[in-house]
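ok new one. same drill as before - structure tokens go in, u give me an amino acid for every spot. 416 of them this time. try not to just spam alanines like last time pls lmao
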């Protein structure tokens, strides 16, 4: 006799601290639907950048589950985020991706909206029709140093202020609001979105899988077992920790916030940030670890200010003096996830003069492709009847325990 599947609440209750999640939390369609409602409708999510829409009339449409959002810059130069749903009979106003518009015109019946979202023209609706109550619906959003976060709920988490207060001063010297997108790459990973995030939140796998990235990453920053080190490696680790502490103090004293800010398992808006040293020449995540763009971002003048990491539950980011790498994670199904990566440079940087696109992007293009293969392997494994949750490394996978603990708490808070 076939046994009934456990409920979502049972799966959540079965999660053992210090271990990966039960299989059903990665693979089941009902769990995916719950994830989309809880984590992608009721939480703040990364949706784009102010520099996606640098000029009035620029629009960028992002589809998230059943929702579609228009990020645009209006006639006054202000950022707006609107629901991409015509107030007539619901047709999509704009297609996904980038466009340039003077007005927002629904292609179905030509209802026409100002860039503010206000309905200005609705043909053949009669003299008594009231346009004032048919504006496009606005989406709640915040800009964090030029990174746009939106919440589809009418009651978004209030602790977004912690992210804003932490990241505005860290990002100010990079002036991401006035950067430009030099390149964009979309990769579909054949795995659950949580596996994508888990893979990004640990570098236990990096040495064996990311040779390009490891030229600039320092392995000791991502956890190690002290008891397993030789005397020489122990001395190397001690020297690195002392140097890292000294450099972090110097960065802070120079006005560059750098110390780690950790996620709060009990909070709603989940993020982590820290400024880390880079290996090799120490300037950038490029094939030679030197700056890949001659024109530095914002007001930056020092190429040796490390890499500011910022992780969230649907994003990861790297900010270096010469360029930034911005990744956005959009679930497409229980076993399919879009990873959209953008490389930012100074708005006045000239391709072929200040930077070469292949040189600028090759490290993270390779890394993202490698991660896609790892996530596909992981999803195939958790879908196997032989899978059972395995233990996290207490040295190299502490961020996975933090993420899993936050995920489980959020599921319970929302009735699971």
């Amino acid at each position: 006799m076939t046994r009934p599947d456990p409920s979502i609440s049972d799966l959540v209750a079965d999660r053992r601290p210090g271990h990966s999640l039960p299989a059903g939390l990665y693979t089941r369609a009902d769990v995916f639907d719950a994830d989309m409602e809880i984590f992608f409708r009721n939480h703040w999510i990364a949706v784009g950048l102010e520099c996606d829409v640098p000029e009035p009339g620029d629009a960028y449409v992002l589809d998230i589950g059943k929702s579609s959002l228009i990020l645009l810059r209006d006639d006054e130069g202000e950022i707006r985020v609107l629901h991409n749903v015509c107030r007539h009979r619901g047709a999509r106003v704009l297609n996904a991706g980038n466009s340039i518009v003077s007005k927002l015109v629904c292609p179905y019946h030509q209802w026409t909206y100002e860039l503010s979202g206000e309905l200005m023209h609705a043909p053949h609706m009669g003299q008594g029709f009231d346009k004032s109550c048919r504006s496009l619906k606005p989406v709640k959003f915040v800009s964090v140093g030029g990174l746009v976060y939106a919440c589809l709920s009418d009651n978004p988490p209030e602790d977004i202020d912690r992210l804003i207060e932490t990241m505005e001063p860290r990002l100010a010297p990079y002036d991401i609001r006035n950067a430009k997108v030099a390149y964009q790459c979309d990769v579909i990973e054949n795995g659950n979105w949580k596996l994508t995030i888990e893979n990004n939140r640990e570098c236990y796998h990096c040495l064996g899988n990311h040779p390009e990235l490891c030229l600039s990453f320092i392995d000791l920053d991502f956890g190690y077992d002290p008891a397993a080190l030789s005397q020489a490696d122990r001395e190397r680790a001690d020297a690195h920790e002392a140097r890292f502490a000294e450099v972090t103090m110097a960065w802070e004293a120079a006005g560059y916030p750098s110390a780690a800010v950790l996620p709060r398992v009990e909070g709603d808006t989940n993020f982590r940030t820290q400024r880390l040293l880079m290996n090799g020449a120490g300037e950038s995540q490029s094939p030679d670890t030197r700056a890949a763009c001659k024109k530095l971002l914002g007001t930056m003048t020092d190429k040796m200010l490390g890499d500011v990491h910022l992780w969230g539950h649907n994003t990861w980011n790297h900010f270096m003096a010469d360029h930034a790498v911005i990744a956005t994670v959009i679930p497409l199904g229980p076993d399919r996830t879009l990873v959209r990566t953008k490389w930012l440079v100074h708005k006045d940087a000239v391709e072929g003069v200040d930077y070469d696109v292949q040189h600028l992007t090759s490290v993270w293009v390779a890394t993202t492709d490698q991660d896609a293969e790892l996530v596909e392997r992981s999803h195939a494994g958790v879908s196997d009847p032989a899978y059972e949750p395995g233990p996290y490394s207490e040295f190299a996978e502490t961020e996975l325990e933090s993420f899993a603990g936050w995920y489980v708490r959020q599921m319970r808070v929302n009735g699971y």
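The domain at 169-413 is CATH 3.90.380.10 (Naphthalene 1,2-dioxygenase Alpha Subunit; Chain A, domain 1). and btw The first helix runs from residue 8 to 14.
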